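Appendix B. Chain record.
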Amino acid sequence: MVKFGNDWDNLIAYQFDAPYYLKLRQFLIDEYQHYTIYPSMYDIFNALKLTSYADTKVVIVGQDPYHEPGQAHGLAFSVQDGIALPPSLKNIYKEIEDEFGIRMNRSGNLTKWAKQGVLLLNNVLTVRAGLANSHRNQGWEIFTDEVIRLLNVRKEPVIFVFWGNNAKAKMQLVTNPIHLALTSAHPSPLSAYNGFFGCGHFRKINEFLMANGKSPIDWQI
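Structure tokens predicted for this chain:
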């Protein structure tokens, strides 16, 4: 049984006995045995381990983990210390710098955000090395949909951030009017100039948090 060490343990535990998840689990056992899979099996659920249900202020939805060596560690858009910034993360940093007039560090490790209540949730939580979207439609989408449904019924406001069409597919799950949903183009170099740059999302997040009596996120890495 997966253990998160926080309130997600009671909230999501029933999913691990569901038929879809048992099938997914067997798929993952086979994949980790025969291929290089990212992230490490010990890091798959880091987003939920680092950001509890009660502490979640913001959800940023990614697609699937980075698929090159040393990058993925269970947090959407984040890479491990000492790894060069991927293009999408470079553009995220550029947008933050433009919004706040600050300089971002060279580290792409976003654990600092996670510990402040930013749930960095990929739609799919694993990937085969070198093959983006290779674990799509194996069951992860059902699991991460349920995470968003659980957050949607919370009585305290949550900000959901959907960048790009893959993430926007989950937007229909946010039906509670107390929440804020922000959407734009994906920060990838292929689409960032189509609406991600200039979206103002990071400032809007902090404004919404403060308007609801919550402390803002310190985005500087």
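Further analysis of this model is presented in Appendix C.
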